[in-house]
Amino acid sequence: MYGNGNQPIIVLKEGTNRAKDKEAQFNNIDAAKAIADAVRSTLGPKGMDKMLVNSIGDVVITNDGVTILKELDVTHPAAKMVIEVAKTQDNECGDGTTTSVILSGELLKQSEELINANVHPTIITNGYNMAAAKAAEILDDISVDATDDKMLRLVADTSLTGKDVGDAADQEMLSKLVVEAVKTVAEDGRVDTDNIRMTKKIGGVIGDTTLMKGLIIDKELVHSRMPAQVKNAKIALFNCGLEVKKTEIDAQIQINDAARMNDFLAEEEAGMKKLVDHIKSCGATVVFTTKAMDELIQHYLTKAGIMGFRRLKESDIMALAKATGGTVVSDVKDLVPENLGTAGLVEEKKVGDDNMCFVTECPNAKAVTMFIRGGTEHVIEEVERALNDAIRTVGITLEDGKVCAGAGAPEIELETRLLKYAATVGGREQLAIEKFAKAMECIPWTLAENAGLDPIDVIIKLKAAHENKKNGKYFGVSLEDGEPFDALKAKVIEPLRVKKQAVSSAAEVANMILRIDDVIAARQAPPGAGAGPGAGMPPADD
Ligand code: ADP
Ligand code: MG
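^ thats the input. predicted complex w/ adenosine-5'-diphosphate below
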């Protein structure tokens, strides 16, 4: 970067922003802390909801960390890195997103003092790496086995607590459904939660939510005189329209006399009839298609006693194929009997004011659907998000067979043991490990704060319980009175994987951000500026 005589050569375009060393570090740390602050108040069962309004005015009300962060329009690169942590946490575990983000922010906050004291970032990241590795060991050590349904239900229950999922009875019912759903799709100890579909319908109350073996398609019969129910259904699946193909080019046909006109219509009619005859000859008794269905086709299907549903979502057709063992066909003429799927029962039923299609007794017994009901769109959407989290947490618990106590218990245990570990390490890394340990406190602290309790008081009591009580390692904070309680006995239970992932990915992003000592940013064009020459330049004076 230096030419002769140590004259710096400027290689960056004018207008480029550059922040170096501490300035860069503190700027990044502030951004990460800001993201943590954005979700802090939602942590735990006493956390508040957020109302998010996007640029086109859509409103989402949620308590779910990752949902909030996905909606935020963030430009700061370090802030984006923290949001990535939440997304990773969500992908890996489906829960613990708020925790991972708060921990990331806190690890960085704790590092500030060290940076100010001129501890080199490499020392800090080394210490953080050592602490993270030790933390994983400690978490393994304080985990407990979870293999029975009762434990799985408690995990579901903890995950649902604090989400807007109705009253205690609703929550208990949903926990039960979640465990049932997960166990149904489990195969050789693995859980593919994609097999659990969610179908939402506004109306009724949360308590009307059910788990159904099979699929629900939010479509009604194309013709009211079609049978409302078919047993031992043979199902044709099309991702094309059911109509006679009009000529590709917009041809005009001149028809001069009525007889020619009739011929023409008759020909078209015959074509449609032929299509339906073909479907019938293959043995289909139910037809689903992603596109349109000509009226005449509907008529012939009705005459043939075949159920017909049109304009299905692509994902619905794919799910039907999987559940019924059918093959999706993109041209009616290509249909052969082997392509048909089967189901013990296909029926149209009235739900609220609408009719929906229920496909049950499918050959693939792994196809299950949560049928979510609730008074408004906001309610069912939050229920769906909460159920998704719960399904994922129960899924990973079933896979791993390991849980740990919640309510801040593992974090305080981590702090206590990491401090002891730090003392054995010595050197300057010790300082970083101590900061890492201290950062763990932010979880019970925030839980307490969100419950309107005095966090300092809560932390002091928790630490004492961890040192002195029998089974102290399981002691978390009761958010009712701020007193320490055995979180396992109090049934606040989380999958081990959620905690491990949250701690490790928070450490990872904190380290990544700490390693940055130079931020070189091209100047951003002002909104609305074109990309042509001079874009982003201030307007000329004349
Ligand atoms: P995250 O997005 O991190 O999962 P949550 O809002 O779901 O955030 O809060 C999870 C935290 O709340 C965990 O630390 C969990 O142990 C704690 N928690 C859940 N239920 C209770 C409870 N009944 N009492 C105290 N803490 C609880
Ligand atoms: Mg959660």
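The radius of gyration is 30 Å.
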